[in-house]
Amino acid sequence: MAKYTFKDFKSDQEVRWCPGCGDYSVLAALQQVLPTVCEEKGIDKEKVVVVSGIGCSSRLPYYMDTFGFHSIHGRATAIATGVKVANPELCVWQASGDGDALAIGGNHFIHAIRRNVDLNIMLFNNRIYGMTKGQYSPTSKLGAVTKTSPYGTVEAPFNPGSLVLGAKGSFFARSLDVDLPLNKEIMLAASRHKGTSVMEFLTNCVIFNNGTHAEITDKAYRADRTVVLRAGERMIFGKDRDKGLVLDGWKLKVVRIGEGGVTEDDILVHDPHADNLGLQMMLADMKYPDYPVALGVIRDVAEPTYDEAVAAQCASVSAKARFHSVDELLASGATWQVK
Amino acid sequence: MQLTGSLFANMSAVFGNGLSTFPDYPAEIRAPKGTVSGVSGFQVHIGNHPVNTPGDFCDMLVAMNPAALKANAKWLKRTALVLVNEDAFDDAGLAKAGFTGDDPFEELGIADRTLIVAPITTLTRKSLADSGLDNSSIDKCKNMFTLGMACYIYSRQLDYVYQYIEGKFGKKHPEMVAPNKKVVADGYNYAAAIQAVPNTYTVAPADLPKGTYRNITGNQAVAWGLMAAAEKAGLPLFCGSYPITPATAILEELAIYKHLNVKTMQTEDEIAGICTAIGAAFAGQLAVTTTSGPGLSLKSEAMGLAVMTELPLVVVDVQRAGPCTGMPTKTEQTDLCEALYGRNGESPMVVLCAHSPAHCFDAAFQAAKIALEHMTPVLLLSEGFLGNGSEPWRIPSMAGYPAIQPRFAAVPAEGRFLPFERDGKTLSRAWATPGRAGLEHRVGGLEKNHRGVLSTDPDNHALMVAERAEKVARVAADIPALRVDGPAAGNLLVVGWGGTYGHLLSAVDEVRKAGGTVSLAHFDFINPLPANTEEVLSGFDRILVCELNSGQFAGYLRSRCPGHRYLQCNKVQGQTFLVEEVVAGIRKALEEE
Prior knowledge:
The structure holds 2 protein chains of 2 kinds. By secondary structure, chain A is α/β, with parallel strands linked by helices. Chain A has 2 domains: 6-233 and 270-306, 3-Layer(aba) Sandwich (Rossmann fold), CATH 3.40.50; 234-269, no CATH class. Chain A is built from 11 helices and 12 strands. In chain A, the strands form 2 sheets. An 8-stranded mixed β-sheet of chain A has the order 2-1-3-4-6-5-11-7, with helices on both faces. A 3-stranded antiparallel β-sheet of chain A has the order 8-9-10. The mean pLDDT of chain A is 96. The mean pLDDT of chain B is 95. Chains A and B meet through strand 1, strand 2, helix 2, helix 4 and helix 10 of A and helix 1, strand 6, helix 10, strand 8 and helix 12 of B.
């Protein structure tokens, strides 16, 4: 098995995203993590396929030196599903923006999750249509002023995490474009997870939606406004690691450790492997300023995958079948002779 | 009635008759019973010679209620026999079917036909009174009583029906075997006992080529032809589809044969159907999506993607009456222009069609062969009439079918693999499937140059547009020449395509029997047209294009092969041609100055 470095996954194509675009760091993370992915899976890089739809982030396959498919708007999930079901040995990654995955491709997105096809879906959420130059998306904040909403939107946005968990997704993780190590961490977790792994990257569109995630990504207060969740660890956050999450009745509550008798032991411990969605749903739903935004792997449960189930059914039917050739098929059932 | 009809048809097939069938049923699963719009019919045409069509007019009509009689009275020959279930012809039944008086035969002007008015429900109940079955189950057997009567009238042995009953009920519902056999036999004996049946008929076996035969529907034949192509190509078959009338049976059929290396996906929508197939094509499989009219519209953009990425893909469209939802269960040939032109940009696809239920096998095989060897999406046009219709088919041997050789990419000795480098002869690119080292490349919907690099260069775009068109045009080298039935030159050439073949053949025969001279050329390949098309058309003074639309193929021929005198014979009623309609069209064309 070959040993790879990130350079092996860089194509010879010039990256054409705007300077300062959040997509760069996700691309870098993917190129950096794939050598490890190949090593862990024991596969060569020609088994890696990157599929995308349409939009700025969907240009990603051109920048990867792998088999790549830049498809049509919204359909990346369906095409990636076809690739994976046809050949389950392939390691399939998908790049889609918020418009691609949640608007025009929303149907394919939820059904891939429902089937639990073994795909790694990188959802680049910049809350705007960048490639068409600045129209609101299904994740734009209520009231967002854009070219198609000059007086502000009057429609509520999707929270991708709620959508994935609402469809009983088996894996959801979130990261920030600016956090390269965390990007790699969740990509590796997604790769290890068998099933549809949705990774939401909160990315900045420097031209049309600059600073949309700044309130949580800015280094000055990122630690206080986000909580990085890890399996088995307490949900502690803050620059001084002095804040945490506890359950207050049916709701999550932010508490300060050391205040009002709260100790570290009172803080919730994250369990992404719990089948019960309740707490994970609340974590995925947390919004600043009421809560820190949850990052890291929020849900990661083992479920049977569609591609393996299809292959297994084919194998079991085939093992019991009385014939395996078309000539035998043609002669099967009711026939008669003309002499 | 669908079951009774298909049993009678299968029995005739096994007996060796020429045969053609067509089920005509409403879109509703349980259409309002007893209403004219809710009538479900099954048309069987048998002969002591090969049979081309399900027939125009009938020799025998079985009407289980007044509505069925009303819906079909216009198809009765003067000499026809009409068998009705008297029990259903009560006041309520007559009123529901819209009869105003109490003599429906008089009202329909068919009182002069041979009428057999039998209390079939009552007789069935009497026949099965001691069977132990409940009334509802007994009433379901009345169609079998009718089948028994038809078997007597057409001198059929009941052995085949008995075998069928044993096969169907033997294992799961053994209690149903004896009652069903009894009721068929009682129907047969009843028909023999009453004096109302003036004649019985014996239709001798047709003079068919020797061999092993089976009955096959068009949808089944498409599925089997695709599996045959996959086997010949040594590839797994992948079908991504969404259920839609009347194409659904292809997906249903493929879903059975997992042991023939077939994977099927019932996707969330039509678009996912074709997109999963395109993904499978990229991954290296024989990829297929099946649909019907409105579904084809939904797949348009993705077909463009297959054109642009130059991946092998078979799209099967079982045409139905449109536009939009139209009449889902009714047949038409109205998707031709959409198949040819229904994509944005200049987006050429190979388009071919099937001309009979059994021919769907060869057409599907051919579609897959072209897709794989020319690296292009291929659109196969079937029709509701073909998909649901059936005919006897002499079972071929796969040894007689040509090899299919997909053009897999070779790993370049040096340098990078160039995905859009073309074969000098066919202009097709090579198929580089994931998993093979050294062939990493990117495809997509954006225009690229031969190296596979994105390009908006004007000259490059012009070149790629021209090459994609030329690649499809060069498929003509691999398709059979257009055949002319009749003299190669003359006054009139009848032209058709797709499922009208049997009707056109019968019509041409009829005109010839009456002393007329006419030739027939039927197209299986629409794009590209056979290489000798212009040569064939040039032999005739006038060309009558017959099709079940308002003139789509005629318009296409006018643009591709201009300068000929084209006449048209069209029908857009959601129904097949009647042979007599085509005959009338031919006579008119012959008389025209």
